[in-house]
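worker-3 :: picked MFS transporter
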Amino acid sequence: MATTTRIQPRSLVRASGGPRYAVALAVDALGTGLLRPFLLLYGVTVLRLSGPTSGIAMTVGVVVGLVCMPAVGRWLDRGARSTVVAASMLVRVLGVVVLLATPAGHVWLFATAALFLGIGNQAWPAAHAALVATIAHGRERDAALAGGRALRNAGLGVGALLATACMAGGTTALQALAAVTGLAYLTAAALAWSVHVYAHPAVAAARDRADGPAPRMCALLAANVVYVFCLNVPEIALPLVLVTQMHASSVWSGAIFVTNTVLVVTLQVPVTVLMSRFSRRSVLALAGVVLAASYLGFLVATSLGHGWSAPAVATVSVVCTIGEIIYAGSATALVTALAPAHVLGRTLARFQLSTGFGLAVSPAVITALAPHGPAALWGSLAATTLLSASAVATEKDQGRRRRGCRREARAGA
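worker-3 :: tokens ->
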């Protein structure tokens, strides 16, 4: 059992990469929030593509973007840190440039823009986690990762609100939002690169020689595919159920999304620090139990009479968000604790592959299950998440009990 960590704001910023890097994260998130929720609308409104065509192009971009992860992992393991973070932002600048240059009706150029945006979005989490792991250690690193997520969610929320306010401008406004997004990515890349964080592979290899190769983490990676469904529950599952099945006002969906964002921003660091008294694997298993309980709560809430279901769903969504916060605060932290430093990049890349795959397939799975009723949707999610939590709890950490294992992994993972 680990000791609870107390993190001061100044030390948290320092452990997260410093003030300039924090500004880079905020600017990058702001730019992403400006465009990401309206990329599909850009394809339909500005480029005059059909909704299904735009959606397929975006999905292909996200999935193909995952192919870059092995290369990103190897690059990180050669010592690059802030350079990879900056590169992930510059790739998205290229995506915005292609998007702005795409003539109406050209689906392949739109798909290319989505591909570049997808590569940047997939590469960034692993690069950011590797950078933080190089600067901070132990439970301070966990809090720094949580702080980065809270800051990113705040930037995404502000960006989405600004974009929503600009939507009255129509096509011109969408093009302007894309241009501002590109400038934000470029600024963030310059700031991130200026931090100049680099790891020394030879030192890491010597220090971790007894730990051997990257941990397999088969159960953890498979479970993570299911866990990440919770990230699309407020954005996809609940609006789909509330609006199309329960015929509730779209205000409920908006309120749930805003509540989710506010809770993540305000509670991500405190909850992560609070949970630091327990092992990371136990906390991750607990996250699965909380998420499964919230899914069962949604099943009960949707069965209530008219006038009660929507408020009940909104209430249960708070429990789901708490589960999401616990999951986000422990999953990447567990991976970085288990991975020997000299293969940290490849380990994080594998973890991001499972995350990206889960995010890519979850909309299709959710929309396929929803028409079959609440039991099919929420019951299936609850059962698979509980199974995943059990797999996480029972998986053995390879190499942790070998002679020479890192003390941190033995005590805190």
